[in-house]
Amino acid sequence: MLWxxxxxxxxxxxxxxGAIYQTLATSRDRRRFLPPGKVVQINxxxxxxxxxxxxxxxxxxxxxxxxxxxxxxxxxxxxxKFTRILTYDRAGYGWxxxxxxxxxxxxxxxxxxxxxxxxxxxxxYVLVGMSLSGLFTRLFAYHHPEEVxxxxxxxxxxxxxxxxxxxxxxxLNKRLEGLLTHVVPIMGRTGLLRLxxxxxxxxxxxxxxxxxxxxxxxxxxxxxxxxxxxxxxAQESAAVSVxxxxxxxxxxxxxxxxxxxxxxxxxxPDFDITQEVLEKLQALHADLANESLQGVHIVAxxxxxxxxxxxxxxxxxxxxxxxxxxxxxxxx
Length: 332
Fold this sequence. Notes:
332 residues, alpha/beta, Rossmann fold, eight-stranded mixed β-sheet, globular
């Protein structure tokens, strides 16, 4: 049995060392990198947000799974030239504390409205949602149409994206979702996630980091290496189907507001998306645009999923168009 005990002891030792290192490194990162925006306390939790610019309506931006305010470094300063724009870190990402509550669309919308009240940002807003947060942004508009003046959706997830999709792709995503839910938090606590991020060994993350401006790549890697990131990423992955159901049920009883709406779709497949799935998402995005009489659908032919990093000028222009339409309707 000695041949089993020795390797087991080595594994336990390595895992223990990794956990200690991760704790120390996370603490070091928090001292080394200070939040660039403001941090407020809501229900005993810290929330980080960053505001630039002046004017109304205020543009409120949310990121995809795992994303932080850093995702909008190429967009926020430009939008700030013509109106006020707020980016923030959802619970468990960046400089915002993690939460034990399920990371569903309903929960996220409630937390965002709390943050906006605490930051004294008055409605109506122009909401910008990307990827998963498109579900959150749309649910916000369904529940609180009086607070939403316009919207931009950036290659967003859709509640029907798995319907009639290739069986292989659906099964792959289900297995990946299950793996992420159980494995990523362990990787985060033991320092393995930090190791993979540091050496660009996570395929999806490595491609994403290359899209960031060079000035923030190191910080982005630090934020993805935090212990709470692994936990929160798993929580959001586990709640995706619930969030989709919440949107589906809401659509059956409530109408989307007639507001200026621009829906942007990726034109190039990247990460685990095939051309067939890409075209399906584009069709679903076109359907989303039709929910408003003022809706417009645009395909970003030179962009992958992260349009705000691949072609930020398209996102900036879409936000500008929506803000201008809001101004025109207010003046009428």
